[in-house]
Amino acid sequence: MAAVPVSPRLNGYDAVLLDLDGCLWVGDAATPDAPAAVTALREAGVRLVFLTNDGRNAVERQVRKLWQLGFMASVDEVVTVGVAVEHLLAGREEAGSAFVVGSQALVDHVHASGMRIVNNTEWASRADVVVVGGHDDLHFRELRAATQAVLRGGELIGTSRDASFPMPDGPWPGTGAVLAAVETAAGRTADRIVGKPEPEIYRTALDRLDGARRVLAIGDRRDTDVLGAHAAGLDAALVGPQAADDDPPGVRMPELRAASLADLVLHAS
Q: For the chain, N or C: smaller number of CB within 10 Å?
């Protein structure tokens, strides 16, 4: 079977960063013809990294979901915000202790960076670093320990400020909502945000694309995907419903836009 040609709008890009939620899938369903678009990019020789602010799931689980929905992917091609947190913390001269509000996947990434995890210990409220991510089993005691550690001088790191994420029944609260609770209780803002639209997660992804000459970041949200790509010095493509909206005054426009990933990749105009 002949390869499906890629839109000439993508000429010159030898690598692409692909957002997951809202771009490749919504909930447990792939967006229309997204698997065909990803296949076409691969057949055209474009290198891929799948990029997400979702730190709830381990990389291996994200890879399984990609395959289940028709996307070929390897572990090395997936960068979650948890991977970016690990990348950031591993570069520190002193590891120290960490309290993590988040899923086991995020805890594992923080531990893999060399930090000593103090969750479920008497030292939780005295952690040197507090990492906050969203997860489905959030408990009040996590917010309490995180707040106390921050008030005692712990560094506060948020995985993202995403207020919500798309699901078939409507938006669900995202990491930004959880982080806001800790910030409000502690009376100060996070010292650092790792996920989009901050450039840290893009630096981690670009490490996987060593040698790439021109990289395009594709996503469905202007406030995270487009702003993040531009903050990292990359071109941005906006797909999905927001692509039809007017651009806010004074904000740099995405270089490309389309109704969906398939429309961007597979259609000539």
A: N
Spell out the residues 6+ positions from residue 245 whose beta carbon is closer than 8 angstroms to its own. Answer: 222
Same-domain check for residues 221 and 209: yes
Q: Two tokens at 165? A: 């994420």
Question: Domain tally for the chain?
Answer: 2
Q: Report how far residue 175's alpha carbon sits from residue 212's, in angstroms, rounded to the nearest whole number.
A: 31
Same domain, 169 and 213: no
| Nearest one of 186, 185, 205 to 194, comparing CA atoms | 205
Judge whether 179 lies within some domain.
yes
Q: Considering the domain boundaries, does residue 84 fall inside one?
A: no
Residues 163 and 101 occupy one common structural domain: yes
Q: Tell me which residue range forms the domain holding 224.
A: 8-53+197-266
pTM of the model: 0.91
Same domain (yes/no): 188, 156: yes
Distances (CA, A) of 251 to 76, 82, 127, 162, 200: 33, 29, 38, 19, 21
- Written as tens digits, the pLDDT of the chain (269 aa) is 556 789 999 999 999 999 999 999 998 999 999 999 999 999 999 999 999 998 899 999 999 999 999 999 999 999 999 999 999 999 888 889 999 999 999 999 999 999 999 999 999 999 999 999 999 899 999 999 999 999 999 999 999 998 888 788 998 898 999 999 999 999 999 999 999 999 999 999 999 998 899 999 999 999 999 999 999 999 999 999 999 888 888 888 999 999 999 999 998 76
Looking at the fold, whether 212 and 259 belong to one and the same domain comes out as yes
Query: Annotated active-site positions, please?
Result: 19, 21
Residues 6+ apart with CB under 8 A from 156: 130, 132, 146, 150, 182, 183, 186, 188, 189, 190, 191, 192
Q: What is the CATH number of the domain that holds 144?
A: 3.40.50.1000
